[in-house]
Amino acid sequence: MHNPFVRGLVALATTFLLALTVNAAAQDSSSPHGKLALFWAGHWKVRIETKETQFGHARTDDYDARCSFLPHGTFLACEYLSLQPNPDDGRIINDVSLFYYNDVDKTFKYTNVGSEGGPHEEVFHVDGNVWTRQFEVTRRSGGVADGREIYTFVSRDKHLARFEISLDKGAHWTLVNEAVGTRVQ
User: Fold this and answer.
1) The domain at 39-183 falls in which architecture?
2) I want to staple 43 with a disulfide (CB 3.0 to 4.6 A). Which of 95, 102, 123, 185 is the partner?
3) SS3 call for 22
């Protein structure tokens, strides 16, 4: 292959085939990497409707979320930027989350770091297109409550989410907010 034109075509074809192979692996929704790519990767617009409850006042918040795999493909990093100031303290909220699959215990992990501190690691329980994570919520009045977020992916480009709090170890749950996420890229 001394012809530069042929060598260029072979290089281009090889690159194309490699890209197809990587893309096919990412699209294999049965693999952990494929599930993260299918459900979370992309650019999202998220609208959160907070209810009037004992845990906070009613309001609407919009976020710009961008989720992509880090260069080696193990971790999916998401950055969430609020598009308006927080009404409690006037600051813009910006935090980062890492999603990854732990091969040892066969779970999807979620680690969040916000400007108020962190990191906080939880486990996502995945059942088809429903992703649920449970965690403790520090109460302003002291002590902790149980919290959970439930994401239901109704399509490849849309998810519905609920954040709920329980003060009685999960016997009853109070809906704190609901969100709609729409993939724009």
Assistant:
1) Beta Barrel (2.40)
2) 185
3) helix
